[in-house]
Design a protein that fits this description.
Helices cover 40% and strands 12% of the residues. A seven-stranded mixed sheet has the order 2-8-7-6-5-3-4, with helices on both faces. Helix 7 packs across helix 11. The two termini are 38 Å apart. The structure holds pyridoxal-5'-phosphate (PLP). The site of pyridoxal-5'-phosphate has 13 residues, from helix 3.
Length: 414
């Protein structure tokens, strides 16, 4: 029972359905919506119109947002290049650097790229594309806890390495990579360091100078901003990173990304970063508390469960667990008033074991019974308690029908 006397596991205490898929996307924060509204109505100017008030207002909004985003990652405003989202930012970073090297006097240095097997498809598929164009790519494995091995990274550099791309936080397991150490290894060797930091932005601290980051992919919709609006941080000095544009046109964004800017989206992205900067310390603690509450209850009330990825190096709002002898898809159907995910939403049309969980050494059964819980800003303790109760109930009912569970129980009782 809660302090107000309501049974927390009853639907009356919470509003259904419950959204617990905050790694796929996040609900818009009302403060973000408010910041966007003028640019969807009266302040509709094109930020590139330099000859009148409408353009100036739009440009001012873009420059405010550029500063707000830069402040969250310790960068300067001029280093933020707006894009349509992190998929585009990842493409621009990797292809942009590869092409710039090919066009430069340094082209003999080569085009070797190092990444990890647990990266998002936006990085892996771009690497595959570059491989088909003759760029050697090394895919680092990860340990059982989901972290890369720094000695393996150190051993993977060659004379020809131009770029390392390692995500700050994994979108399935929430595992945080040792960014400071990776940045140091890259800087010592004069190799550029790119990170897809989509899931980390606004959840854990991220300072481009402390981490020696040269490029960072960001997107608004994972921190309560709008969809279709992203950015690439591109270091301007020491070293000045050169990238070839992928989209040619009016020369916007200092020639790195042409196209009329999405002013309402950018204003919202900026506001989302401003809110995150103010609230991150307190919010991270609250999310970790909710996550641990869910984990502890599931561990206490269910057997044969596995937690995937390091619990120490992990996003505060992430929990990824397998409920053995239960099909993840069937469990999600059983949890119809709770929105969770059985893998990455970005390729959920493909029903195949998650490449991230496989890389952690899980077999197909464990992958197939995995559920990703993504807890976010608007989730409450009552919701977490309700979800825990529903999961325990649904796993129990599915196991009652599962011959595999019965066999496993008989085997352990012997
Ligand atoms: N990178 C990571 C780690 C993600 O989680 C996602 C979205 O799921 C993306 C990239 C793609 O971002 P966007 O939706 O902005 O293209």
């Amino acid at each position: 029972m809660s302090s107000n006397g309501q049974d927390q596991a009853s639907p009356a205490a919470v509003k259904l359905p419950i959204y617990l898929d905050n790694h796929a996307t996040t609900p818009l924060d009302p403060r973000v919506l408010e910041a966007m509204l003028p640019y969807l109505s009266t302040k509709f100017g094109n930020a590139a119109s330099h000859s009148h008030q409408f353009g100036w207002e739009a440009e001012a909004a873009v420059e405010t947002a550029r500063q707000q985003i830069a402040s969250l990652i310790g960068a300067s405003a001029k280093e933020i290049v707006f894009t349509s989202g992190a998929t585009e930012s990842d493409n621009l970073a990797l292809k942009g650097v590869a092409e710039a090297y090919q066009n430069s006097k340094n082209k003999d240095k080569g085009g070797h790229i190092i990444t990890a097997v647990t990266e998002h498809r936006a990085v892996l598929d771009t690497c595959k594309h570059l491989q088909n164009r003759g760029h050697p790519v090394t895919y680092l494995p990860v340990r059982l806890d989901g972290l890369i091995d720094l000695d393996e990274l150190a051993g993977a550099f060659t004379e020809k390495t131009i770029l390392v791309s390692i995500m700050a936080a994994n979108n399935e397991t929430g595992v945080l990579q040792p960014m400071e150490e990776i940045g140091r290894l890259c800087r010592e060797r004069g190799v550029l360091f790119h990170s897809d930091a989509v899931q980390a932005l606004g959840k854990v601290s991220l300072d481009v100078n402390k981490l020696n980051l040269d490029m960072v992919s960001l997107t608004a919709h994972k921190l309560h901003g709008p969809k279709g609006c992203g950015a690439l941080y591109v270091r301007a000095d020491a070293p000045r990173v050169q990238i070839a544009p992928m989209i040619h046109g009016g020369g916007h964004e200092r020639g790195m990304r042409s196209g009329t800017l999405n002013v309402p989206g950018i204003a919202g992205f900026g506001k989302a970063c401003e809110v995150a900067l103010q609230e991150m310390p307190e919010e991270s603690c609250r999310l970790a508390g909710l996550r641990n509450r869910l984990r502890d209850r599931l561990l206490a009330e269910l057997d044969d469960v596995l937690i995937h990825g390091s619990m120490e190096q992990r996003l505060p709002g992430n929990l990824n667990m397998s409920f053995l002898h239960v099909e993840g898809e069937a469990l999600m159907t059983g949890l119809k008033d709770v929105a969770v995910s059985s893998g990455s939403a970005c390729h959920s049309d493909k029903v195949e074991p998650s490449h991230v969980l496989k890389a952690l050494g899980l077999d197909d059964d464990a992958c197939g019974s995995a559920i990703r819980f993504g807890i976010g800003r608007f989730n409450t303790e009552a919701e977490i308690d309700y979800v825990a109760g529903r999961v325990v109930e649904a796993v129990g009912s599915l196991r009652d029908l599962s011959p595999a569970y019965e066999i496993a129980k008989k085997a352990t009782n012997k």
